[in-house]
Specification:
Largest sheet: 5 strands, antiparallel
Radius of gyration: 48 Å
Shape: elongated
Helix content: 55-70%
Strand order of the largest sheet: 2-1-5-4-3
């Protein structure tokens, strides 16, 4: 790969100096080489007439965001011998519409003569071809009709060179506008342009107004772009804020309407929301419970919640909750209601992300299991009472499930059957020697169970040498 110095030497030999667009590339020979080859193929070695190329690039420079590009292009055209008056006209003339442009090309072609020669500098057709070339390069939606007109006027080969020149102009425009630093007109290396600019301004002072208007438009557009970007950013923030607020409203509505007691609190312990089910079940209203520590003191009997700094451990609990990234089951907690009632709640805590004010939030859900625990206690007592009664009777007693497995065996049944309760519970009765599936006792009991009738019978158990008199009482269970 050639060095930067070698590439710059070739550029200076071909052009006479290093153009400003290339002069800024001093530390990357690959980029400079690429830019130079694009300029060389599309512009320097392009066989189109030199005045035509310079005028076309001047018209393209009018669309640049940097006024310096327009100034330098005007100076370059002037240096190539284009009259100052024509440069002024090209700098401020309005581009005709496509229908008007095509109409004028057709009329000029029909008249023929010197004005119909597009390669003749200053001819009417040259100006029309220049405008059509700008349309082809800058306005893709109009490219087809203008290309057809240019092909008719210029021929295929010159049109190919014109399209290549347009590609270079578009590339040059993008490169200049994307650079972070743009050289000024009086920067080092601009001396040739400074001399031509002075001469041009002396001959046509009005062109200074053209450059000033271009700079004013550029600044207005830049301000407009910034305003649009700012407005777009503000609109985006408004949409995000509205979405967050809507999401918060939906979340609050879901929490408020939930049949389960729900509390939302922040990482510093402040209670943000108590839903209706929480207040109705416990009797504690949001005005009574300002912090999680107050709730624990009032309802859970945690004395530390009443002490100063009682919520100091909440932050650690929230840290642990967010680190685990899973809901935490707190288990059953005894709750004292506002009217000194007693409840049992199963508590679950889950992280819900950032609250609107930036604090981390936690959703705490309570499930009232008081009735279930009371029923379980009553059932346990009933079972205990029934077991005591069954163990106290003198007859052997067993209970079987629908798969003929032992559920309950009292002490007398253990003695009669010759096995312990631990051995029998869970074992099917037909595994006993005297209760085989094909034996008489099992078939009789099975028939009674299917018919739902009570059975009184007896059987002889050969292994023990005993006659057993039994009663079978079928049920759905």
């Amino acid at each position: 790969m050639r060095s930067v110095e070698q590439i710059r030497a070739e550029i200076a030999a071909a052009v006479g100096f290093v153009p400003p667009a290339l002069d800024g590339v001093r530390d990357d020979p690959a980029v400079l080489e690429s830019l130079w080859q694009v300029a060389r193929a599309g512009y320097v070695c392009n066989p189109l007439p030199s005045p035509f190329k310079e005028k076309f690039l001047l018209l393209m420079a009018r669309t640049h965001r940097t006024t310096l590009s327009l100034i330098l292009r005007c100076c370059h055209v002037y240096e190539r011998g284009v009259p100052a008056a024509e440069i002024l006209d090209l700098s401020r003339a309005s581009m005709p519409s496509v229908p008007k442009l095509l109409e004028q090309i057709t009329a000029t072609t029909a008249r023929g003569g010197k004005d119909a020669d597009w390669a003749q500098p200053g001819s009417a057709m040259e100006r029309l071809v220049l405008w059509a070339a700008v349309r082809v390069t800058r306005h893709r939606d109009r490219r087809g009709r203008c290309c057809d007109a240019l092909r008719t006027v210029m021929g295929d080969r010159p049109l190919d060179h014109l399209i290549l020149l347009g590609a270079f102009a578009a590339h040059d425009r993008v490169w200049n506008q994307s650079r972070t630093s743009v050289p000024t007109a009086d920067a080092p290396g601009q001396e040739p342009y400074l001399r031509d600019r002075t001469r041009l301004l002396t001959e046509v002072p009005e062109i200074q107004n053209v450059w000033q208007r271009h700079e004013a438009r550029r600044r207005r557009r830049r301000v407009g772009w910034r305003e649009r970007d700012l407005l777009g950013e503000l609109a985006s923030q408004d949409r995000i804020r509205a979405a967050v607020q809507a999401s918060e409203r939906r979340f609050r509505a879901v929490v408020q309407s939930s049949p389960l007691p729900m509390m939302v609190y922040a990482e510093d312990g402040e209670v943000i929301h108590l839903n209706k089910a929480w207040s109705e079940t416990s009797g504690w209203e949001p005005a009574d419970i300002q912090t999680l520590g107050e709730w624990r003191f009032c309802a859970e009997g945690d004395e530390s919640g009443a002490a100063p700094g009682g919520d100091s451990e909440v932050g650690q609990e929230v840290d642990a909750l967010y680190e685990s990234d899973e809901a935490i089951e707190e288990g059953e907690i005894a709750i004292r209601t506002r009217h000194n009632g007693q409840l049992i709640w199963e508590m679950t805590s889950a992280a819900i992300g950032k609250l609107p004010d930036g604090r981390r939030g936690v959703l705490r859900i309570g499930r009232d299991v008081t009735t279930r625990r009371e029923m379980e206690q009553a059932l346990w007592q009933a079972n205990r009472k029934m077991t005591t009664i069954l163990q106290s009777i003198s007859d052997g007693f067993v209970s079987l499930d629908l798969k003929w497995r032992f559920i309950l065996v009292n002490d007398e049944a253990e003695r009669i059957l010759g096995q312990t309760q631990d051995q029998l519970v869970g074992m099917p009765i037909y595994q006993l020697p005297c209760w085989k599936r094909d034996g008489s006792p099992f078939r009789e009991v099975e028939a009674a169970a299917s018919e739902g009738t009570v059975l009184h019978d007896e059987y002889f158990c050969a292994p023990t040498g005993r006659w057993i008199h039994y009663h079978a009482y079928p049920s759905e269970e």
